[in-house]
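Can anyone check this?
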Amino acid sequence: MIAVEFRRPDQGAHYATVATLRVEDDSSWTLSGDLDDSILEVSIAASYEPSGQIRFADDPARWARLAHRAFRTPYLVVEVMTDTDPDARRREHERRAVTGDG
């Protein structure tokens, strides 16, 4: 299971959580807060993927882990709050290393 928060700049250097995405191990998911499901249609660039991108519909948990690549300051940022797969980061690094993208 992975849970990520989408945050927007607040006053000063603070960020306010505007939505939370939770993806279960069975790929079921919930999105709560002020963002609608269209946010999940954003593809994440990944040159090491055959299609060149990662889509939420293809792998929700992986998309959530990599969402920080697609959403950055100053508009919207993503922070992983919980990830119960301790090897996910290592696997992603290995995927990039095999193709020379990381």
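Reply from J.R.: I decoded it. The first strand starts at residue 2 and ends at 9.
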